[in-house]
Structure formats: structure tokens, C-alpha cells
């Protein structure tokens, strides 16, 4: 009995020491691309995982694991990004092939950045822990995307490949298309079967699964497939665990979808069978580019969070994937706080005072639906005092953050719409809930709080010409100006006006 226990311990120890790509290589299907901002995916990898760029001076730095095969060194990022904003500019390929992911260029659809490029993700939008060590994922808001149109060694034509990714199973929408995987090299739709990527979300335009979603599906271009054709596959289950392992793999005439909880248990098989019968999908015409957060034609309407993922050469066995799943579970993903700075109390009445030198007597208030700043003091009218007071509520779209209900218009909340802040009645929709959820951080100028949008974490409450926006530190809108950004997004939160 003692000998058996020792063997189990030894097997477990060596098993955990091997990274996902070591496991794939042992199974005869080596990784040809490996991306993660949270950890090394090879047991001996100690190079750069990703690069961040800070808003204060546009300097960049690379973030590597704490040790070979280990978790990302989040402390390096936190020190580098202190008192400013940071974006993820590059997610490095760990295979040595140079299949790095960078800011996606325009294609069939244009992104919101200059020259049609997509947005970059906030470096701090998706904090987690792995085995108790802090790390950051990649929080994709609509308009954000990464791509490599010149990847080396990825599957083309009808060649076999495997893919897995770890996602946030609670961050999704029905937009097209939150993908990770193989896509067109032109950033344009070049026809059926020219993609094979993992999709995660609740789109019902093409295929669907059981329940209300989200589902793991395959984006094969001109269709999200839950099974053999673009309609309901009841075997493709809704999967909304906080951390999800998603698997799609394909070979000539055959493909599969698998998935499971990334912190416990095993993988389930949601589809394992023949290629779609519609013209173009058998044989496939994969082109070998790599995408993250967007569709093959740069469709940019989706949202989701990515932590790690790989692409392989060859069709991995279920046993290999089961071993990879056990490795992911052993990594110990867990949630981390989304807030910092002076704490808020749910149910309390608060006010937000500007800290920019010009405007320290001005508070966030509203006039009808428009959110603005106004001078408020003890002599102000009762109506204005009420318009400048807000009740703290648990975040409508994420309970780890907050929503702010109007004191004078109960049932109405601050939300962003086209990046302007407005006060609207809660319509109960998923979009409203997410738009009305904000995560306070320690104030960027050292005072009070900076109130970040949960759904667009590159953006925060900013007063600009006395109106309120969710603004980024540099961008295409006038209210995104970097001038005075840290001051304009820092507010002292005090008790609401009596």
C-alpha cells in the first residue's frame, strides 16, 4: 500500500511539473503556438510571456515567469505600471517559432484605433491567482483584438490540428466572434472552411447548444458550429464555470469539441464526428493565421477573457487532452480582487469630488440623463444635492465591483453609452448591467479613487469640459487626451449630500 501511494505521489509530481506543451509533445502532437499572460506552458520556459506599454511615457517592458515553467511575475508589471495605465502590446509565442500575437490590423471590418487597427487590452483588466500567485489575463472588450497573419508551422489546408484555451466562463456575449485559433492570413472572409478556431459565447446566428449559453463552438468561417451542421446540437452543453477549458480539434473528415471546468474535474466531449456536409468544410482550407478575441475577418463585436491557449501540429488524442486538463486544474486558477483604494460600502450614499486643480469644488451630478460636474456646497438647492448623490449597489454585471444608483431617480444608474456617462433606468438587460458596473481603483494621481469601467477596463470616469465620459489614457476621442488624465480620472469619494 505504501509503495502504491509513493508511485501515485511520484506520478503526480512529475505530471504537474510538465507543462501543457510538454504533455502534447509526449503525445506526438507538439505545440506550434503557445500563448499565455498567466504562466509558462513548457516546464523549462523562462522567456517573456507578454509585453506591456505604460501610458505615462509609452515605455515598454516584458513580463516573464517567476521561475522556469512558473507563474508570471505580476510584481514586475505592477511596479512598472504604478500610477499610470498599461496596455498589453504583445503576447509572445513560447514555442520558439515566433508566432507572437500583436495588435490586430483592419480586415473585412476595421477596428476603432487609427488606420483601422483594433484596440489593445488593459494589462490590469483580468487579475487572477494561480496557486496563490497573482497574474493577469487578457480582458477583451468589443473592438479589442490580437493577430498574427504570418504564423509558422500552423495547420494549413486540411492538415490536422488541436487547440485549447482557458477562458472566463462568465465573460461573453452574443457578438461575433470571441475566437482563439486558426484564421485567414488576409484578415478577410475567404470562404467556408478557411478557419478553424475555438469560439466561446452565446451567439445563436449559426449553431447553438443546449440551454441559453455560453457554448464552446468551432468558428469554421461563415458558421459557428456546435456539431455537424449550423443548427442545434443538444450535446453541446452550456458551460459557464468561472474558468473554462475549451478544446477544438480537427483532422481530415473528422473533428471534435470538448470542454470542462478549468479548476476541477475532467473534460466532457460535446461533439466528436464528421465534418459539416455543407460545401467547403470537407476538405478544409485552413490558412494558418492566429487570432485572439476577433473573427477571421476582424469582426470585433465580441467580448471575453483569455488566460492561456495553444495550437498543435497533429490531432491530439483524448488521453493527451485529459492530461493537459489535469495540468490546468493543478495550476490552481482562482479569482482576485477587482478593486483597490478607499473602500466603498454597499448601501451607502456617496458623492464624487473632482481633484483636478481647476475643479475641486465640482462634484459628479446629473441633469436629466446627462452626467456632468457641478459646483455643489452647503448653500446648493436640495434638488442639486440629490442630483450629486449616489447610492452604492453591488455591481449589476459583476458582484465583485459596484453600480451607482441615482439618489433622486431610484432605479436609474450611471452607465456608459458610446463612452459618455448617462443616467438610465435599469432595463434588466445583460448589456445594461455590464455598462453600469464599475471597479474603483486607487486614484491614479494619489487621491481618492479612479473608477474603471468593468466592461471596458482601459476606460475610467473622466470629467472633460464638465461632462463625464469613460475615457482611455490616449485614444481617438478628444476626451481620451492624455493631458491631465491622471487628475481628471481621480475622484475623492465622500458621504452623499444630506
TrEMBL record:
Q: What class of enzyme is it?
A: hydrolase
One GO MF term on file is: alpha-L-arabinofuranosidase activity
**What is the catalytic activity of this protein?**
Hydrolysis of terminal non-reducing alpha-L-arabinofuranoside residues in alpha-L-arabinosides
Gene Ontology annotations for the cellular component aspect, listed alphabetically: extracellular region
Q: Where is the Alpha-L-arabinofuranosidase B catalytic domain?
A: 20-334
Give the main localization category: secreted
**Domain (Alpha-L-arabinofuranosidase B arabinose-binding) ranges:** 353-493
SUPFAM superfamilies from the xrefs? AbfB domain (SSF110221), Concanavalin A-like lectins/glucanases (SSF49899)
- Classification via InterPro entries: A-L-arabinofuranosidase_B_cat (IPR015289), ABFB (IPR038964), AbfB_ABD (IPR007934), AbfB_ABD_sf (IPR036195), ConA-like_dom_sf (IPR013320)
SS bond partners: 21-31, 81-86, 176-177, 401-439
List the pathway annotation. Glycan metabolism; L-arabinan degradation
The UniProt keywords, alphabetically, are: Carbohydrate metabolism, Disulfide bond, Glycoprotein, Glycosidase, Hydrolase, Polysaccharide degradation, Secreted, Signal, Xylan degradation
Q: Which Pfam families match?
A: AbfB, ArabFuran-catal
Which biological process annotations from GO are given for this protein?
A: arabinan catabolic process; L-arabinose metabolic process; pectin catabolic process; xylan catabolic process
What does the sequence similarity comment in the record state about its family?
Answer: Belongs to the glycosyl hydrolase 54 family.
Q: What is this protein called?
A: Alpha-L-arabinofuranosidase
Recorded source organism is Psilocybe cubensis (Psychedelic mushroom)
Amino acid at each position: 500500500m505504501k509503495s502504491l501511494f509513493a508511485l501515485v505521489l511520484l506520478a503526480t509530481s512529475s505530471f504537474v511539473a510538465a507543462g501543457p506543451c510538454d504533455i502534447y509533445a509526449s503525445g506526438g502532437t507538439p505545440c506550434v503556438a503557445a500563448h499565455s499572460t498567466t504562466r509558462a506552458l513548457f516546464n523549462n520556459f523562462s522567456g517573456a510571456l507578454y509585453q506591456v506599454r505604460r501610458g505615462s511615457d509609452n515605455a515598454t517592458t516584458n513580463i516573464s515567469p517567476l521561475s522556469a515553467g512558473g507563474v508570471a511575475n505580476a510584481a514586475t508589471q505592477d511596479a512598472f505600471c504604478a500610477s499610470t495605465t498599461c496596455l498589453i502590446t504583445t503576447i509572445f509565442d513560447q514555442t520558439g517559432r515566433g508566432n507572437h500575437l500583436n495588435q490586430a490590423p483592419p480586415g473585412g471590418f476595421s477596428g476603432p484605433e487609427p488606420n483601422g487597427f483594433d484596440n489593445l487590452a488593459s494589462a490590469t483588466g483580468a487579475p487572477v491567482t494561480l496557486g496563490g500567485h497573482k497574474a493577469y489575463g487578457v480582458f477583451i472588450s468589443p473592438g479589442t483584438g490580437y493577430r498574427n497573419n504570418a504564423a509558422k508551422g500552423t495547420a494549413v489546408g486540411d492538415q490536422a490540428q488541436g487547440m485549447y484555451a482557458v477562458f472566463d466562463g462568465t465573460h461573453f456575449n452574443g457578438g461575433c466572434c470571441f475566437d482563439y485559433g486558426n484564421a485567414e492570413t488576409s484578415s478577410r472572409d475567404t470562404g467556408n472552411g478557411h478557419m478553424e478556431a475555438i469560439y466561446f459565447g452565446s451567439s445563436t446566428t449559426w449553431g447553438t447548444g443546449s440551454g441559453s449559453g455560453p457554448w464552446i463552438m468551432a468558428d469554421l468561417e461563415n458558421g459557428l458550429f456546435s456539431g455537424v451542421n449550423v443548427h442545434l446540437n443538444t450535446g453541446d452543453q452550456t458551460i459557464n464555470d468561472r474558468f473554462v477549458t475549451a478544446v477544438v480539434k480537427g483532422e481530415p473528415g473528422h473533428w471534435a469539441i470538448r470542454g470542462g471546468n478549468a479548476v476541477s474535474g475532467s473534460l466532457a466531449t460535446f461533439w466528436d464526428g464528421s465534418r459539416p456536409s455543407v460545401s467547403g468544410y470537407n476538405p478544409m482550407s485552413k490558412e494558418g493565421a492566429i487570432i485572439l478575441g476577433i473573427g477571421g475577418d476582424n469582426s470585433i463585436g465580441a467580448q471575453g477573457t483569455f488566460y492561456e491557449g495553444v495550437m498543435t501540429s497533429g490531432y491530439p488524442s483524448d488521453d493527451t487532452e485529459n492530461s493537459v486538463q489535469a495540468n490546468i486544474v493543478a495550476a490552481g486558477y482562482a479569482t482576485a480582487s477587482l478593486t483597490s483604494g478607499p473602500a466603498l460600502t454597499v448601501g451607502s450614499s456617496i458623492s464624487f469630488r473632482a481633484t483636478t486643480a481647476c475643479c475641486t469644488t465640482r462634484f459628479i451630478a446629473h441633469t436629466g440623463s446627462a452626467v456632468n460636474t457641478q459646483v455643489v456646497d452647503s448653500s446648493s438647492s436640495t434638488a442639486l444635492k440629490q442630483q450629486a448623490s449616489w447610492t452604492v449597489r453591488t455591481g449589476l454585471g459583476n458582484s465583485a465591483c459596484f453600480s451607482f444608483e441615482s439618489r433622486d431617480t431610484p432605479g436609474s444608474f450611471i452607465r456608459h453609452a458610446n463612452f459618455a456617462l448617462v443616467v438610465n433606468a435599469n432595463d434588466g438587460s445583460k448589456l445594461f448591467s455590464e455598462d453600469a458596473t464599475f471597479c474603483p481603483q486607487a486614484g491614479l494621481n494619489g487621491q481618492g479613487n479612479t473608477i474603471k469601467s468593468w466592461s471596458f477596463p482601459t476606460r475610467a470616469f473622466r470629467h472633460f469640459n464638465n461632462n463625464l465620459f469613460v475615457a482611455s489614457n490616449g485614444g481617438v476621442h478628444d476626451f481620451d487626451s492624455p493631458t491631465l488624465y491622471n487628475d481628471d480620472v481621480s475622484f475623492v469619494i465622500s458621504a452623499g449630500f444630506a
